[in-house]
Amino acid sequence: MTTLFVISGPSGAGKSVLIEQLLARDPGMRFSVSCTTRQPRKGEEDGVDYHFISRDRFEADLRAGRFFEHAEFSGNLYGTHFQELEEAALQRRDLLLDIEVQGARQLQEKGIDAVYIFVVPPSFTGLERRLRNRNTEDEAAIERRLKQAVDDMAENSRYQYIIINDELEEAFTQLQSIVIAERIRWHRMESKLGPVLDSFRKHNTNV
Ligand code: ADP
Ligand code: 5GP
User: How far is the CA of 74 from the centre of ligand 2 (A)?
Assistant: First the structure.
């Protein structure tokens, strides 16, 4: 069974960097490639970082009911196709979703069983510095993202885990620990525990 890991948090908090490190070390984890109407950044690849699609195409997919969740963020549309979940299930891998807070809330309100993780920066000024140093948005877009970050931070209590991404190495260890612990929760261990229990059943003299 695929476990969904939902990672959310203000833009610039460090989600992409943490996710990249996790995916490099964890072959059992698949990244959910979202659709977006925003323009690719330098170095971003279509089909790898995102499916970069037009607004018309996005809206057509939305009408056709192809999205598991979607949201408008900073003037662009973002969404996860159901197909991402289907492919992860076929590959028997877990699925990691990097989505903003409205999308995460849609899943929570639908009662979707997932591990909800909120990544935050150490402070507002720290976030601003990271967004500026990343150098991927113009001034107006940075201002929009910072304003949005203030609202996003107010959603913190909806999440099961909080990672304060100050020291990257420590934050990564925390993310990895969450994934390891969640995978051995009792309800996710049924298929692995079964054969162990079977081997004991043969020796049960009380039946
Ligand atoms: P997000 O995906 O949440 O928008 P990114 O992963 O793109 O954020 O990170 C934003 C910027 O901050 C990037 O330039 C990244 O290299 C940098 N960054 C991320 N985590 C840290 C950290 N712990 N310390 C310093 N810089 C960081
Ligand atoms: P960026 O433009 O920086 O890549 O992403 C902006 C925001 O959109 C980030 O907070 C990211 O988590 C979010 N995002 C990316 N893909 C999706 C998606 O499929 N659905 C939703 N709701 N948000 C997404």
Answer: 10
Query: Could you list the residue range(s) of the whole structural domain that residue 26 is in?
Result: 4-201
Distance of CA 120 to the CA centre of its chain: 14
Looking at this protein, which amino acid is placed at residue 96? L
Of 70, 16, 9, nearest to 41 (Cα)?
16
Q: CB neighbours of 93 closer than 8 A, spacing ≥ 6? A: 2, 27, 28, 29, 30
Closest CA to 167 of 27, 53, 45, 17: 17
pLDDT tens-digit series, residues 130-162? 999 999 999 999 999 999 999 999 999 999 999
CA of 132 relative to ligand 1 center, distance in Å: 11
Please tell me the pTM assigned to this model. Answer: 0.96
Please count the other Cβ atoms lying within 10 Å of the Cβ belonging to residue 105.
17
CATH code: domain of residue 77: 3.40.50.300
Spell out a b/e string for 153-191, using b for 16 or more CB atoms within 10 Å of the CB, else e.
bebeeebebebebeeeeebbebbeebbeebbeeeeeeee
Would the CB of 119 count as within 6 Å of ligand 2? no
